[in-house]
Design brief:
The structure is a homotetramer. By secondary structure, chain A is of the alpha/beta class. Chain A folds into 2 domains: 2-125, NAD(P)-binding Rossmann-like Domain (Rossmann fold), CATH 3.40.50.720; 150-312, 2-Layer Sandwich (Dihydrodipicolinate Reductase, domain 2). Chain A has helices spanning 12-21, 42-45, 62-66, 81-90, 107-113, 131-140, 149-164, 193-196, 211-222, 255-266, 315-329; strands at 2-7, 27-33, 57-58, 71-74, 94-97, 127-128, 143-145, 173-178, 201-202, 229-234, 241-248, 272-274, 292-299, 304-311. In chain A, the strands form 2 sheets. In chain A, strands 3-2-1-4-5-7-6 form a 7-stranded parallel β-sheet, sandwiched between helices. A 7-stranded mixed β-sheet of chain A has the order 9-10-8-11-14-13-12. In chain A, helix 1 (12-21) packs across helix 11 (315-329) and helix 6 (131-140) packs parallel to helix 11 (315-329). The radius of gyration of chain A is 20 Å and the shape is globular. Chains in contact: A-B, A-C, A-D, B-C, B-D, C-D. At the A-D interface, strand 8, strand 9, strand 10, strand 11 and strand 13 of A face strand 8, strand 9, strand 10, strand 11 and strand 13 of D.
């Protein structure tokens, strides 16, 4: 039995981890921290967990934490994560960090988009936790940087094309749309029901912090530095990201040829589902699941390819991918706890 | 391995059965009928099932059907069900019927609210499939009439009070609210997105066909015929029913005394969760699950008790309860396939 | 030109007043206060107002305020209102107070449901601003207490039946459902998009502060003290209240007879629309308008009548009714600025 | 008094015309056709119109129609429009056609994207009814082809940049998102509430019929034929389109320089509102109004500009723009009936 801790258990990502771990027979959630709800049952804060999750929230120092579990999920904001993670690692623990603090290999890039990095010595060792690209490294890692929600959809959407060298990477434009759970559970005017429902808008246009993370992985696949355009939007839904991605084809391709590239690239992957040519993914068909559904269209009129990738931002975009990484790091079957059928309608 | 058939697999209830059966290791879905989608994969019609459910829809005669499975779920409209069910029973099959055709013991009552009954000879044997009230009969039944969605919430909400004799049953008023999936997947103007979203209304006021079903079970618990007021409303959500139920207390009770009645009545029940006094259920906390969450308030100002009961209308209100009944009829553990954590947010 | 001030202009009710006043040619919004947004244009806080409302928010003392306008809307929380209103009245201003502070005639009742009343000397003079019941007093008032949103729907729904004496008032049960804008624009976890969407729940069961306000007006119509049951619920919509009201009929009535009572009572009313027998109101058909739509069903099975009343909680339930009161107090045509067609879909 | 007819009055666009015409004092709605609801009051089909619109639907031949009004809005599907419009014109009537049938100047392009054109002789005379580009021609037109909803947002978003020659038009990528009312009120599975809510998807990727319409107007502004990429998506909202538009800048520009181009181009326009640099439009802030709100970001990292344009698809994207065109064609003040404040929340 592997003992698990969740640091930051009362946010939407933390509680999604708790939900998913209910389906993992070989691990046990031993400790869950929350400053805000210290002393209260997690199931009292999230009544959906009643009868299923019996743990109470605690407000602990890192030293106390470390004794209680073997692997930790750190589901705290960036900046907080890099204060905690080094101590957990030094205590011999494995860590899946869901913040942005260890995703970028280059501290200078991190500091340009975020703030000063206080634990840059761990950046070289941290593995970017996208199993479809870095599975072998994840298996051996003690620190996995769980990818951002937008980057997961975008990198999975582009990887087969980039690896095959069939698109011009400098022409990549990413137009992404996310549900409101991506903004977390903090009380703020901008995510009130009345502000979000029956509405739609872009935010942080050409300025979102997930941009360098995508550029890092895209550049890695291209073996040359790439700059992309990225626009995130806020959807009036709870869960789900759809990324619509545009790029110029190096030379004309048919839908069938594009399809073959994707099928080849993802043929062994349990969590990538490819849409039949002519159909496209929808967020409602991945809801609650760890799937990334991908569709595409080679447009002979414009010489571009349009790729569409859908995930549940709280699952494949956060907690589900974190559990997938945990499974890999602990030598458990990779799909354990992650094979729920998407909930539709 | 028990072989399962779903008659009417392409409606929301049929496909929810297919989803839930994925979590049942001792049964196997062998046949799924749909006139509309004959020949198409169910996962093509419902892409959330891609990679999880590999069955194709068929349009079969009852005779052909019967050979293919041991237990059938009939998820077809009333009137259609009573044409099919007798043949399945005569072929020696077990049936969980999700229509209204076998729920009312009295054909005259059925004919008052619906239309002529063409198989009244099966009404005496059909068991009303609410396990919390009729578990022992369900275990032995070959025909279970799966309860309506509204009645499930209302009967579970009232049963402890009725059995204890603490309310005046003639004062019962039921104000229920349901998500739009209760209206099914037929293309109709009234359930278009634009007609439902950002809106709320009552329908079939004092005239809904679930009324006699509730009255039958309430009368059974009271051992005397009872008439109730029932108003259904349409919520701008997909899944969920909340019933708010009012009744006059025979004599004053505290919340604590009411709580004891509920705790006693439901202490062994795996799918009824009681809210702590002062908190109340919400549909979002049972979403995708087989739970019925119940809260209440004894109001000393008015001498009434207010009971609130929440279910997912497609799960405990339909497919989940049907699987629970299947488990009982097949001597499988009652909770098999039904212990998913509700999906929130 | 009548000069208008809004105290508390940046909440949903305040900004709705600003929106509606754009359609009133004989009045001019001169001052709008907001502590939070002091110095910022209201149209910057609410970009829907861009190009339409050019006023900036100010944080003013009551003395400074009083000089700037002739009539004030006080759209601030209860307790704050009773600090401001007396000074405005003493400065010779007219006031439409949208808080609860002057709605209850009896300070003792107020103090039982709210807290100590610091200006009880104004309670006798304050007129309960429901024009359909108290028009003549409103015309002469200098202080109008604008009704609560729930009470507006409930009192308009019941008044014809109570006045005609055809229901037993002690059997009244009110089951109301409101959109999230009723909770205001304060940042709080409970009204975040993800907490509200695709969900439904009751709150403050048998304990909501609008109860005594309804009881006061119902008792007035009955000429005897009445106690009612009231349960509010939170709908996943922005705007709209639907109240479903139950009462025992003194003696059997047909729908036609009930219809005549309503038609007689409301025949001159510009903002009450009666549904044809067999149809029922919906919140989406009053959205953005000052209408109250009412439907009903006399149920011969149970001897009860069910009344359904729908309003837009921000318009007829708050700002629209306040403008209607302003029109009456200022001898302007009562419907000025209030005849927009409801926005559907 | 100008007499108005609406052909196809019972769709969302037709009824939105009826709603807006209530605010136009110099015109009168004389006839409204609907095959489906022949003989029924429009306010019975759309209860939001109760007490405001008193017309009944009729099913008329074109000859009968023509006598009844001076100007007609044809709010019928393409193909149907080109059967009706020629007869109305020959009867001396003015027509604002809301279908696609007369928007494309080149019958060959029309026939490539739609089907055979049966009235190509009117294409040369039809004016593309975007007042911000073609006001002078609209004033003199007898046939105005009211623009599509997506093209309205895209062309208004791009016009200042195209006219100034600061972008490379062959790099234009348009990613648009529309509310469900754009799909109309026909009963179809794909726009049921349960299929749309809490979901998001693209459709007709690189194949939507609004593409040639945008290309025609963009090419006109560039004075050279341009091909663009266009992806429409379905939002879980009723009303609203947001288009996110990408293009390569010919040479670097600051946000301030871009802002000046927009301010210059739109300085006299009553229905275009420009966002301050750093803020972006949202569909909820134009809801129910004829405004097009536009924001932008010049991205020095990528050398691209991102433009965001928001409209209400039923107003500026259909009925409101049609009324604006009517006002121009009838020498009424252009903004008559169109100055409602957007409804938020």
């Amino acid at each position: 039995m592997i003992r698990i801790g969740i640091v930051g258990a009362s946010g939407y990502t933390g509680v999604e981890l708790a939900r998913l771990l209910c389906g993992c027979p070989d691990v046990k959630l031993m400790v869950a921290t929350s400053r805000q709800y210290n002393g209260r049952k997690l199931a009292e804060v999230y009544p959906n967990l009643a009868g299923m999750v019996d743990i109470a929230c605690e407000d602990l120092q890192t030293e106390e934490l470390a004794d209680r579990a073997d692997l930790f999920f750190t589901a705290v904001p960036h900046e907080t994560a890099m204060e905690i993670v080094p101590d957990l690692l030094q205590a011999g623990k494995k860590v899946v960090d869901l913040s942005a603090d260890f995703r970028l290999h280059d501290a200078a890039v991190y500091e340009k988009w975020y703030q000063k990095h206080t634990a840059p010595e761990y950046l070289a060792e941290a593995v970017y936790g996208l199993p479809e690209l870095h599975r072998q490294q994840i298996v051996k890692a003690r620190l996995v940087a769980n990818p951002g929600c937008y980057p997961t959809s975008v990198i999975l959407g582009l990887a087969p094309l980039l690896q095959a060298g069939v698109i011009e990477p400098e022409t990549i434009i990413v137009d992404s749309k996310s549900g409101a759970s991506g903004a977390g559970r903090a009380a703020q005017t901008g995510t009130l029901f009345c502000e979000v429902t029956e509405g739609f808008k872009a935010y942080k246009v050409a300025a979102h912090r997930h941009t360098p993370e995508m550029e890092q992985e895209i550049s890695g696949l291209c073996k040359t530095p790439i700059t992309i355009s990225f626009t995130p939007h806020l959807l009036p839904i709870s869960r789900g990201i759809l990324s619509t991605i545009y790029a110029k084809l190096v030379s004309p391709l048919t839908d069938g040829e594009v399809s073959e590239l994707y099928q080849g690239f993802y043929k062994e992957e349990p969590f990538v589902r490819l849409c039949a040519p002519g159909s496209f993914p929808a967020t409602q068909f991945v809801r609650g699941s760890n799937f990334c559904d991908i569709g595409f269209k080679a447009d002979s009129r414009t010489g571009r390819v349009v790729v569409l990738a859908a995930i549940d931002n709280l699952v494949k975009g956060a907690a589900g991918q974190a559990v997938q990484n945990m499974n890999l790091m602990c030598n458990l079957p990779e799909t354990t706890g992650l094979l729920a059928v998407p909930l539709f309608p």
